[in-house]
Amino acid sequence: MAIDWPSRIRAATIHLGCSLAVAALAAGLVFTLWYPWPYRIVSGGTELFALLVSVDAVIGPLLTLAVFDRRKQKATLQRDLLVVVMLQFTALGYGLHTTFIARPVALALEGQRFRATTAVEVAEEELPEAPASLRSLSIDGPRTVQTVSPIDGSAKYDVIQAALAGVDLGMRPKFWRVWGAEGQREALTAAKPLSALLARQPSRRAEVDDAIRRSGKSADAMVYLPLVGRRTDWVVLLDARSGQIAGFAPLDGF
Predict the structure, then answer these.
(1) How far apart are CA 182 and CA 192, in angstroms?
(2) Is residue 148 helix, strand or coil?
(3) Helical ranges in the chain per DSSP H
(4) Which terminus has fewer CB within 10 Å in the chain: N or C?
């Protein structure tokens, strides 16, 4: 008997529509809660989610196309489709878990730069040593924190050794401090004029202008510091008077 391709394609199409609806709900979670702008770019959230959706939206409908056959007994067909759905949700769950542990949890000032620290990079064993309000990892976008360097000689040596191993201050909660006036003053001390950045990269003027418009401030009223991200480096725009974060721009600040 010939394969009933129209019914298989119809079933796969319906499954694809359902998969895209679930993907849209997942996108709301990922980009609204875990990776707010600009961290979906800086921390690679867009690429992770695109991989997740492409795999999940393809695997389910293709498997449905392969197993859907009206000649099967109803119970057998239902079992096969249930297995397909379970496989798809398992893949979705794994993908969401991977995206979750790679989410940015801290925007940490490390002297003359900011770092977008992801959950997987944090030395979680140090969380009990952080200030009370910073002892849990954020699930709704990164918290801005200041970092402090130790004064004691042995502690300094520990920091240097950890940094050589790739664990910088922004990844170590014991050195986090709540963001406030002190952090803003430190950021302003290290910040550079935005005009200097534009002079070095004049071809990126349109992108900077867009970032300035988003901030609602003028270019003369802002300074900047480099931002190190998992996926790419940007700059953090600061109010030149208060040191408050005014926005972000997609330029290399180093």
Answers:
(1) 18
(2) coil
(3) 5-29, 39-42, 45-67, 74-101, 153-164, 181-190, 194-200, 205-215
(4) N
Which DSSP symbol is given to 216? T
How distant is the alpha carbon of residue 143 from its chain centre?
12
The residue assigned the tokens 């924190």 is 145
Q: Are residues 118 and 43 in contact, defined by beta-carbon separation less than 8 angstroms?
A: yes
pTM of the model: 0.85
Helix (H, G, I), strand (E, B) or coil at 53: helix
> Which tokens go with 246?
């005014």
- φ/ψ of 226, rounded to 5, equals -65, 150
Measure the CA–CA gap between 43 and 121, rounded to whole angstroms: 12
Number of residues that this document lists for the chain: 254
Q: Buried b vs exposed e over 32-47: b needs ≥16 C-beta within 10 Å?
A: eebbeebbbbbbbbee
CA distance 123 to 166: 11
Q: How far apart are CA 28 and CA 179, in angstroms?
A: 28
Q: Cβ neighbours of residue 141 under 8 Å, at least 6 residues apart?
A: 33, 34, 35, 36, 39, 104
Backbone angles phi, psi at 58, to 5 degrees: -90, -45
List pLDDT tens digits, range 194-250: 888 888 878 778 888 888 888 888 878 889 999 999 888 999 999 999 999 999 988
Angle at 83 between CA 80 and CA 88, to 5 degrees: 130
In this predicted model, what pLDDT tens digit does every residue of 178-201 receive, in sequence order? 999 999 999 999 999 888 888 887
pLDDT level of residue 1 (50, 70, 90 thresholds)? low
